[in-house]
Write a structure and sequence with these properties.
The chain is mainly α. The chain contains 4 helices and 2 strands, in the order αααββα. The model has no long low-confidence stretch (mean pLDDT 81).
Length: 119
């Protein structure tokens, strides 16, 4: 299975090819980030799933999908005349916590492939 297909098949599934250009751009960015972080000139095939997770997290955040859907919006309610705005702190805290957990998990996975710097 190609990397783009792996990315598209992560839930929520992306149908069609109209988002491929965006996914490819995010994929190239993720690959460059991994190459720089790991001090490598190649990307081991074992990192394909890490790349897919990184791309889908960024794509879902940009498109408002999955955990970043609009029904999970930060604003809970708005009152016009009384000028009252309430926020869904629980939703934002949960989203931030999940984002941090994803970053920690990704970093742990990448550390296994990190090469030492040569001076």
């Amino acid at each position: 299975m190609e990397l783009i297909d792996l990315i598209k098949n992560l839930p929520p599934i992306i149908d069609g090819t109209d988002k491929d250009a965006t996914l490819i751009l995010l994929m190239e960015e993720a690959i460059q980030t991994i190459l720089i972080y790991c001090n490598r000139s190649d990307v081991p095939e074992d990192l394909n799933f890490v790349i897919a997770r990184m791309v889908r997290l960024q794509f879902d955040k940009a498109m408002g999908l999955g955990d970043f859907a609009t029904d999970n919006a930060a604003v809970g309610s708005i009152s016009e005349a009384g000028r009252t705005v309430s926020f869904n702190n629980k939703t934002m805290e949960a989203a931030l916590k999940e984002l941090m957990e994803n970053q920690i998990t990704t970093k742990r996975l990448l550390n296994r492939f990190k090469k030492p710097y040569k001076l």
